[in-house]
Amino acid sequence: MFEGHDTTSASAVWSLYYLAMYPDIQQKVYEELVEVLGESDSINVEQAGKLKYLDMVTKETLRLRPSVSAIIRTLTEDLHLDDLVIPAGTGAQIRIWEMNRDPLYWEEPEKFDPERWTSERTKNMHPFLYVPFSAGPRNCVGTQTSILIPLLTFSLEIYNKGQKFALLEDKIMVGKIVKNFRLEFQTGTHIKCLPDVLPFVFICAFF
Ligand code: HEM
Asked: CB count, 10 Å around CB of 188?
């Protein structure tokens, strides 16, 4: 349940949150939806592939609010980091949440900025800098999932078809809502996010 449902629903909800917070970005998403879908309210796979700006919004959401905030691996061999040797057998926690806001790699890391995902700006990005779906042999399963969905032929530039499936789900959920509704915050609503309460789960409190 966690892998396939909570992840996509959490990221869709956070996208809606950011779109409510930034009406100009929401408007751009809406205009793209009108351009691609016309009068229609449904989104097919081919149309989802054309929603490039919504794609950028989804990636930016997963940068600031990664559904999986950390992953853990056991080192199978010694790891040499400069002069430091971390012995095989050590548990290593890869903190996706923190990686995604490291000022060494991200300009104005706390800023929600879908424009950082243009192909121009991502072409030299290190492939392991942004790993909301993990990486390597135990990354997000979807490769198999996408075998069940041979229609997934649109091009998203992340490296795994399963990730394309998850992004597709997200884009269809968010796109259908934005096409039909305008999102706004109720005055006085503040949402506080506490990512470090548990290693994998972050708790959001509504005040
Ligand atoms: C925004 C959506 C999603 C995100 C951010 C996400 C993220 C991740 C991450 C980070 C992992 C690796 C966990 C680890 O290494 O410990 C993972 C694994 C996995 N994901 Fe996803 N996922 C998403 C959607 C999905 C969907 C839609 C499915 C199924 C249809 C799915 C199925 C799985 C499964 C089964 C694994 C375990 C793979 C393994 O251990 O070999 N995920 N996911």
From this structure: 6
